[in-house]
Design brief:
The complex is a heterodimer. By secondary structure, chain A is mainly alpha-helical. Chain A is built from 11 helices and no strands. The two termini of chain B are 21 Å apart. The chains are: A mainly alpha, B mainly alpha.
């Protein structure tokens, strides 16, 4: 009984996207709208676009810049966030600067990047890192602040060094919050990857998709849209896998305490 | 004391920056804070700037409003039926993963450049998170509370108003706060990339004409707007949810 219900739910979950795509395919099959061509043509255009040299000239550089910028933000955000979380005074004194930087819409900084660093990979990486670092930093700070003080005192009483305390008590306790910040950062990072790549660039995903739009290449625009969407889905999917593994102990702990 | 120290840090940073710019250590691409603030101050006396601000902030607010009016009821509907919930949850989760900025070039074909384009993009950014949050909110209604309300003879409408909606509200507030930030990025980015009359376009035009202090001034304004708008969302969340446990510590 229970098993059949589970299969039923799985069937429902799979049915919706299949039905939606089938509907799109059928309804667009004879579409004469210039901007919404038949799905068949869109899919064909997608493979035509990305099987060739665009893969290495546009897709690869953008993805690499995203990865490098994101990695910098991850390292800087978590380490600075932990330090600020452990020092109430530093956190308070720097709060006007962190709050302002966090609220600044990253897109507005693209011209600054262009003026200071000029167009190119360095500018794009710097902007991606700057956009991603704040949600991670703030989440890490908040995560550390939420650490059970008894746990910290216990670790201190047992003679754990500062480094050991951070690694075995603070970091694990802050991890669920950090994970939430990282997810926000992924969304901002991909948007920044596209936006920063539009100005002054001669290759990359943002450049590609804007070029296609400006030359009224509808299938190219769709191919760019789908590729950026695919990257978003892959990045989020990867995040969910890593988060699931890193926080397995956390869910188990929560289930056991909430169940009791 | 608690306010004086952070303020002192800000003043110190600005003073050092001003000094470094004055003695010429910083390149001309990084103007002094004084000149940035004074060009923003004179820019603030022009209607062009305020039209740009109104364009961006208006599109942001209207977009989020549409999402609340459309996304919450649809989310509540999808979340209250077990079959609909199972059938749509993963599809909406999937749609949420697609960066809305990806749709910008295509939407330029359909809507042209202007206010409407920004509103549509803001809606696309905030809709999926809010839809999901509303679904999860309904799904997580405490069954004991719901059954208790039924046992006490509350009708369907009153159970909905007294039990379901209060359970959904914190989820919606969180969803709005999270998507409000990135919706603002998208609202600014839209006019920065495709032009129009938004704040992004004003930043781009100052940059294109080489007026660096003005460009920084307008970016400063974008940051201040970001502070005000995210602050407003947080304040609204506190105000609407003052009765909710998550707000207790913050208000005391």
């Amino acid at each position: 009984m229970k098993a059949t219900r589970r299969w039923g739910i799985l069937g429902l979950e799979l049915a919706t996207p299949i039905v939606l795509i089938a509907l799109w395919w059928a309804l667009s099959a004879h579409s004469s709208s210039p901007y919404f061509p038949p799905l068949k043509d869109i899919v064909h255009g997608f493979f035509q676009t990305w099987k060739g040299s665009n893969l290495t000239t546009d897709l690869l550089p953008s993805v690499l810049r995203f990865l490098v910028g994101f990695a910098i933000a991850l390292l800087a955000g978590i380490s600075i966030g932990l330090l600020l979380g452990l020092s109430p005074r530093a956190r308070r004194d720097l709060s006007p600067l962190t709050e302002f930087s966090r609220a600044l819409p990253i897109a507005a900084l693209v011209p600054v990047g262009l003026v200071i660093l000029g167009p190119g990979a360095t500018m794009e990486i710097a902007l991606i890192a700057f956009g991603c670092v704040w949600p991670i930093l703030v989440a890490s700070t908040d995560g550390v602040r939420g650490v059970d003080p008894v746990l910290l005192d216990t670790a201190r009483a047992y003679g754990l060094s500062r480094r050991q305390r951070i690694r075995t008590v603070v970091l694990p306790a802050a991890l669920p919050q950090i994970a939430a910040g990282v997810r926000i950062a992924i969304g901002i990072g991909i948007a920044t990857m596209v936006i920063a790549n539009i100005f002054g660039a001669t290759s990359g995903l943002g450049y590609f998709v804007i070029q296609a739009q400006q030359s009224f290449d509808v299938l190219g625009t769709w191919a760019g849209l789908l590729m950026i969407g695919l990257i978003g889905v892959l990045a989020n999917g990867l995040y969910l896998i890593v988060q699931h593994r890193l926080l397995a102990w956390h869910r188990g702990w929560r289930a056991s305490t909430e169940g009791s | 004391m608690s306010v004086a120290e952070p303020a002192l840090v800000v003043v110190a940073v600005l003073a050092v920056w001003e000094l470094l710019a004055r003695i010429g250590v910083l390149p001309s691409s990084i103007p002094a804070p004084g000149s940035i603030v004074s060009s923003l101050a004179s820019d603030m006396q022009t209607s062009r700037l305020w039209n740009g601000v109104l364009d961006s902030v208006g599109a942001w607010a209207i977009g989020l409003g549409i999402v609340v009016v459309v996304g919450v009821p649809v989310g509540v509907l999808l979340g209250s039926s077990r079959v609909l919930y199972a059938a749509t949850r993963h599809t909406v989760e999937f749609l949420r993963m697609i960066p809305s900025i990806a749709a910008l070039p295509l939407l330029v074909f359909v809507y042209g450049v202007g206010f409407q384009l920004t509103v549509v993009l803001v809606v696309l950014t905030a809709l999926w998170p809010l839809l999901l949050q509303s679904m999860y909110g309904v799904h997580d209604v405490d069954p004991v509370a719901r059954d208790t309300a039924r046992v006490y003879g509350l009708g369907r409408g009153r159970v909905f108003a007294r039990v379901t909606m209060p359970s959904v509200a914190p989820y919606v507030a969180t969803g709005l706060r999270l998507s409000g930030t990135i919706a603002l990025v998208v609202a600014i980015a839209t006019s920065l990339v495709v032009g129009g009359s938004g704040l992004g376009a004003l930043i781009a035009s100052a940059s294109n004409s080489g007026q660096n202090p003005l460009m920084y001034g307008r970016i400063l304004l974008a940051g201040i707007l970001g502070l005000i708008l995210t602050g407003a969302l947080i304040a609204a969340e506190r105000r609407l949810l003052h009765w909710h446990p998550s707000q207790r510590q913050a208000s005391s």
